[in-house]
Amino acid sequence: MRKLLRHLSHYKKESILGPLFKLLEALLELWVPLVVAAIIDRGIAQGDKGCTVRLSLLLAGLGVVGLVSSVTAQYFAAKAAVGFGERVRHRLFAHIQTLSYSQIDTIGTSTLITRMTGDMNQVQGSVNMSLRLLLRSPFVVFGAMIMAFTVDRQAALVFAVTIPLLSAVVFGVMLACIPLYRRVQEKLDEVLLTVRENLVGVRVIRAFRKEEDERQRFRERHASLTGAQEYVGKIAALMNPVTYVIINGAVAVLIYVGALRVDQGLLTQGEVVALYNYMSQILVELIKLASLIIGLTKSVACGNRIQAVLDMVPDMTFPDKAPEGMPSSSDAAAIAFRGVGLRYAGAGDHALRDITFTASPGDTIGVIGGTGAGKSSLVNLIPRFYDATEGEVLVDGVNVKAYPKAALRGKIGVVPQKAVLFKGSIRENLRWGNPEADDDTLYQALEAAQAAEFVAGKEGGLDYEIAQGGKNLSGGQRQRLTIARALVRRPAVLILDDSASALDYATDAALRQALRNLPYRPTVFIVSQRAASLLHADKILVLDDGQMVGMGRHEELLRSCVVYAEIYASQFRGEDDLSVGIGKEGDSYAGKE
Length: 593
Known about the structure:
CATH architecture of the largest domain: Up-down Bundle
Helix content: 55-70%
CATH class of the largest domain: Mainly Alpha
């Protein structure tokens, strides 16, 4: 939390002027009881109407100046707090962008969202309150005690005993609540994760009639959050009644002592009223301070959670400059895997083991295998979304770890499994691939991606507005637009990670034909569950449980790879090609690998 406050250094003027104007308001407030005492003792008691009017006008003047000071302090405090929140949010967002996929997977999307929204709002609000009250409230409390001593030392001893007791209560509650509020935020993360999963997967939940199960899961996590909040709330709620008991007891003692000293002629009635007003000021300020302390304990827990993300050191670094001799051309690139292995953080076993192959420039490489075989893991190593834990991945003969980020990612176009589009026009989405692309370039990419026809049919064409997440498009339309977005940048390496699964066979075939006819001939990696999508690939990699169990063209793999033959058989059962591929070597594939 302390590290976060360094961002306030950009608002030094506001951070100083805000508390100063609040202290000015507090100073004026401390003079009010003395003015009231003078009105009682000199104006009312002596029947001096002129004195009463003058002192009343002075009282009104103190109130007006105090109000102006308070508004000015609020302006500067709000400006500093909002600016602080903006800078921290920008830094947090930028830092998250530097984290690897592995680190983001470990932290979790839901908790990152919570830290950027709820946690950040709590910290920003506490900064605002602190600039206004953190100095003002203690100043008024101790100032009231000092002013009480100027009125009457013996009666003021009540203040000297009361204030330490109240301080012990306030800070004791604060220290007890800080770790509990941290636990509450963790429970909140769990609730948000459940909500996010249900909103994203609402169709699946309804399809399997799991609504009641999900409601029960939400109730359980919400009950856990409620229990944690109630527990810390009970502790925090002790602050107000305990402070009220101490203050009211002190007021009773003060009135009793004051009455005795008035009878003895040592105090005037106005001075007793002034002492009572000072005690009331202490009560009001301690209530404010108690609320501030509760907010601060929450913000400390939230700030520590934000700082925990900022303290994470990216486990994937990129050099600033490319080594000498590194190819900079956007022509098709050669890709090589040499004994590559991958184990995800916290995983018990390797996702990939001993992967070795070479893709020549302009080749089309197919990647096929069962669910969980490691297909996406393999292609994610090329743009360094993850780092290989064993072996090395080479692009144009250079290890991907030697490339600057912009140089590596600039050569590669990736179309992920999930088609992600952003709110805005089709043109804006396509220009993610190349911000400088003109409409001719966009239409060429759309033609190759088999998306030009449906885009032309949309109202406004390229200016058609896409809803958040592409909800106003079909699954196939979203996939074709994401493919076009990757093609706009004319990548040297094009990775299609099962990105045509929603396309019909005719459109899929037309897409593959268009990719083969691209003038710049990229090296294409096609990850697919469909064997038909890979029949004409220059090389097909067959994965099974993280290992490469086959490599070659379609005809070779039918004869030599059991896994590929089984996949093909499951999709083309009864086809002539299959019977030819199987019949030559006998009925069994045992030992053919």
